[in-house]
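Friendly challenge for the regulars: who can give me the structure tokens for this chain first? No prize, just bragging rights.
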Amino acid sequence: MNMESFLCEESSTCKSFQSAICLHCNRRLCVLHITEHSQLNLDNHQQITKEAEEIVQHINNEYEKTREIYQNILTTVNDWRAKQLEKIGQIYEHHLQCIESRQETVNLIHQELTDLLDREVRQPLQTMQTQHSANSGGLEQVQETIKRVQEKSKELKWNFLGPILNKQMGEPAEFQASKQVSSSSDGKTHRGRRLIGSLSSLYDINLRRFRSYKRLVELFGITTNIEQNKIDLDDYIKGQEGSLPLPNVVASYIAAWYRNSNVNEKNIILKEYMSTIMKHISHDPNDYTVLIGIHAFFYNERIEGNKRELMTFILQYFVDSKCLNRNQIFYWYHNKNEYSYKGFDGAKQMTAPFIKSLWAPKTETAAQATPMQQSVDEHQEQTCE
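First reply, four minutes later:
Bragging rights claimed.
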């Protein structure tokens, strides 16, 4: 029997006899080398254990990073969603206000035409029938009124498309349409409306240009022989041949009222000459000419006392007189990006109480009424004190 076949297989130099089969290398080794190989196994086990812990820590760290990225992305997406919803809400509010403003205009035109027909057509015809007599002059006047009503009735329609978005700009179609020049019902464009009669032109507004005119203030300030003075006012405005912007007329009207210290005369100015303003305005919800005239008055006039209270009163008076509508003011107030002209911020601050009053519950008694709900006389008495 060859004794070398029983020697340790670790190396050719080891002359010790085999003791066991090594589980590390699967060779027959002596006791010494079995012990050494066992230590190697322990060392390898520790190294592998360390590597395993390191990889666990690594994947946990990477996972935490993904969680942070996930949270950041989720926050970004939610912020984007909120902004888009806000934008959609703003576009919706714009469409809604345009629709309501247009319908309000149609309602006003309908009421105006109905009243005109009752007053100048039906009643005269009924009188003629009752009296069993008719004269050519009366019939001609009735026919003339009917023609005027027929012409005016052309405005009883919707002249824009409603909530349709511009596909390229993402803007409501009304935004695009409103950039066109506003025209009067007879097709003749007034220079005053051309200056500020569109949304886009509000960027270029310079309120200094719309100061009150001395001559207009004088005419609006006359409180005797009112009817003749109204004719003089109309003649003066027509004599400017379209070179007199409507905001200057509005600012002059308010200035004449504000500068007068007599309560009764202030009351006459405010009530009697509003009809002059009404002759020259459009009922286009996108025409902010009158509102700019009011802002120009506050921007250029030296005002003592509470400007916010004065602004609230003036806005409410113009709204009550159907010269402005609440939706116009509300939309202007909440869209600085579209109407960012010098003086906008100041006008917005003065308008804030009026905007708040739109949402206030209307349950107060007469004794609790705010200045904008008081009579013209009461407010003027406060202004003069």
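The first helix runs from residue 31 to 131. The beta strands are 20-21, 28-29. Your move, everyone else.
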